[in-house]
């Protein structure tokens, strides 16, 4: 066990380091390469999309003394968690407890493993972060297998306020319906697990949406899912015809041949999949797409090839029904609960109005500069050299 791992096992590091580790880490800085996901647009997404949604949730829920519970894939430097702590938790005196997954960590005995260990200790020593928080050297997909170590650790924390499945590659590249340790199963099992809570919660999905980034069988199943709604849900057809330009399976097939059309069909289909999962839990969840952004990862892509989506899950309240007649009959009928049909129709305008992050920042250069500076400050906390970051941004013309 190295020194950082030994420190990580302690619940309270403040007796050793005070309230932060800045003075410990300053002599440990090494030359580190910048990655495509280090562009300022990612910090824009963290703050403006993710933290805005979490802030709205935090303001709507009575946390009392419990922590905000978060599960995700935070990367080696835990940039996501640092940002959420700073923007959401710190101003509200809201505690944070997280469970992260980094399957590369199992093989990281060198600098990368050291960076992950040190970053984990740094974040755990931030004020209000639960000492039982951890990053597991395991694959997020293992959550699809009940009684796996990943699943056991998730159950120990309890239900989650935020589930963040953020992968710069595709979440849906594998063949569906083959193994339990898949992103399909992990997402499904987590949604089932969340039935233990009454408060609303958030699911973040970040995934590639190019035609080569989604398994052909997945596309086929989503295509059939959309066709089913075309045949049974006039409200859905009205919205897709108005906003996305399809009202038949033939038009879906045409759109799938076009990069933008493929992205629209995938985003609609995967939203319907999640709605269907929510409607089959006990109790049922209302699943709403509340934000959908995209940007380009592969420079040669004809259309933005990555989406960042946020879904809100809220319980569908089903009033008891008195079939005997002992209860005073209400003059006004009870409001009808949402259906898969109505929820699927509500998704369509969001898909049609997906915000392109690259284009938005390009048109707002002062905002772009602001997020370059914010990223540089964030990276300094993880032992990058901010001047090197700014130089890298200029050289990469972003």
How far apart are the first and last residues' alpha carbons, in Å? 40 Å
The largest sheet has its strands arranged as 3-2-1-4-5-7-6-8
Pattern of helices and strands: HHHHEHEHEHEHEHHHHEEHEHHH
Instruction: Tell me the number of structural domains.
Output: 1
How would you classify the helix and strand content by structural class? alpha/beta
- Proportion of residues in helical segments: 40-55%
Give the CATH level 1 class.
Answer: Alpha Beta
Return the CATH architecture.
3-Layer(aba) Sandwich
CATH topology: Rossmann fold
| Overall 3D form | globular
Q: Work out the strand percent.
A: 5-15%
Describe, in plain words, how this protein is organized in 3D:
This protein has 398 residues and is α/β, with parallel strands linked by helices. The protein has a single domain (3-24, 37-317, 334-395), classed as Vaccinia Virus protein VP39 (Rossmann fold, 3-Layer(aba) Sandwich). It is 46% helix and 13% strand. The protein contains 16 helices and eight strands. It has helices at residues 3-8, 14-17, 22-25, 40-60, 79-92, 111-124, 149-157, 183-193, 216-232, 234-243, 249-255, 259-279, 340-352, 357-363, 365-381, 386-395, and strands spanning 68-72, 96-101, 134-136, 162-166, 201-208, 285-295, 306-315, 355-356. The protein has an eight-stranded mixed sheet, with helices on both faces. Strand 4 (162-166), helix 8 (183-193) and strand 5 form a beta-alpha-beta unit. Helix 4 runs parallel beside helix 5 (79-92) and helix 4 packs across helix 15 (365-381). The longest helix has 21 residues, at 40-60. The two termini are 40 Å apart.
């Amino acid at each position: 066990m190295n020194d950082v791992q030994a420190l990580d096992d302690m619940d309270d590091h403040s007796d050793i380091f005070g309230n932060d580790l800045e003075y410990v880490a300053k002599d440990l800085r090494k030359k580190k390469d910048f990655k495509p996901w280090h562009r300022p647009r990612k910090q824009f997404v963290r703050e403006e999309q993710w933290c805005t949604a979490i802030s709205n949730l935090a303001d709507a829920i009575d946390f009392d003394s419990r922590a905000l519970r978060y599960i995700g894939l935070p990367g080696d430097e835990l940039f996501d968690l640092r940002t959420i702590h700073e923007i959401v938790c710190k101003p509200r005196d809201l505690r944070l407890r997280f469970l992260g997954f980094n399957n590369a960590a199992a093989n990281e005995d060198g600098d990368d493993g050291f960076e992950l260990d040190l970053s984990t200790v740094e974040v755990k020593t931030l004020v209000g972060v639960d000492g039982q928080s951890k990053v597991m050297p395991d694959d997020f997909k293992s959550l699809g297998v009940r009684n796996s170590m990943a699943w056991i650790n998730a159950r120990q924390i309890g239900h989650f306020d935020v589930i963040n499945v953020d992968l710069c590659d595709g979440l849906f590249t594998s063949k569906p319906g083959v193994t339990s340790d898949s992103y399909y199963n992990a997402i499904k099992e987590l949604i089932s697990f969340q039935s233990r809570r009454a408060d609303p919660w958030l699911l973040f999905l970040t995934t590639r949406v190019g035609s080569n980034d989604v398994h052909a069988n997945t596309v086929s199943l989503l295509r059939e899912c959309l066709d089913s709604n075309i045949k049974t849900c006039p409200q859905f057809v009205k919205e897709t015809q108005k906003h996305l330009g399809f009202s038949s399976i033939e038009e879906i097939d045409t759109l799938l041949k076009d990069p933008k059309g493929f992205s629209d069909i995938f985003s609609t289909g995967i939203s319907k999949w999640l709605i269907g999962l929510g409607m089959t839990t006990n109790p049922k969840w209302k699943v709403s797409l509340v934000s959908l952004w995209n940007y380009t990862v592969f420079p040669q892509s004809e259309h933005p090839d990555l989406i960042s989506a946020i879904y809100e899950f809220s319980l569908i309240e089903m009033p008891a029904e008195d079939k005997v007649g002992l209860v005073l009959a209400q003059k006004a009928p009870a409001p009808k609960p949402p259906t898969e049909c109505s929820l699927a129709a509500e998704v369509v305008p969001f898909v049609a109005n997906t915000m392109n992050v690259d284009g938005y920042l390009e048109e707002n250069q002062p905002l772009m500069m602001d997020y370059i500076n914010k990223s540089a400050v964030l990276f300094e906390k993880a032992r990058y050299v901010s001047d090197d970051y700014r130089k890298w941004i200029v050289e990469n013309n972003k």
